[in-house]
Amino acid sequence: RRRTLPDFSGKSLARRLRRRGRSNSSPATLDSYKGRVVFFYEMYANYNDPDLALIMEKLLHAHGVDVIFPPQRSSGILEMAYGLPAKAAATARYNLNATLPYVRAGATLVSGEPTASFAFRSHYADYVDGPTVTEVASATRDLGEFLYEWRAAHPDTAPAASPTDLVLAYHMPCHLKAQKVAHTFFDLVAEIPGVRLTDLSAGCCGMAGTFGTKAGSFEFSMLTGRPVFERVQEVKPNLVLSDCSSCRMQIEQGTGVATMHPAELLAHLYGIAPARHTLSWTDNA
Question: What CATH class is the domain 161-269?
């Protein structure tokens, strides 16, 4: 009862994409999708915040990257976490088979939810045998990681950000740390003129996916996240950025400070999408 949960969207992202004709069939020719992104949006964007996934699509388009939404189920992490190996394997096979044709045609598999990219890169190999797992895993990137690499290789495509005096804090999700990516959204946000950005580096937020939403887990979840909450209070940011949907929920409830996916902030400061939430500029001196 004490856990604050997100609202459900009236229409899922999958339904909206079908109505707009944005779900794609398999590519016809080899290399026809080189330089494109096949996007995996995961459950939160599908059921709770479809607009976030569409903002990510706009962000990729602004960098000159075409986006394909393949047929997809959830990442399967829940089935894995709750001891349902047969269902986890079936989900993994479905997602691998749905994305493999695009990967073989040159596309990069990208997700804005670290849990999903972690599933493709690490967990699917525990449930599915064969070279398909390795092939798709090697083509998988976190969204921030992909954008950093893309901008480095195509500097002329990088949008310019409006200057801001926002004080920002960044929380790296555990599932992103586990992927050991060289660069994240932190590096992209740090390039914004005038921004004051702090990496919280205070450990796990304590949410642990759905663990913090279960009956009997709330107090332990909040206790685990206390170092993160205390660090936020020290930094006094206008906004806490995190790639993970459950981390954002936990930090916002534990601190009262607004949270946002860094992709959404960048899209706003690049002039690609209007801010959906009020960005408060306060005296943080």
Answer: alpha beta
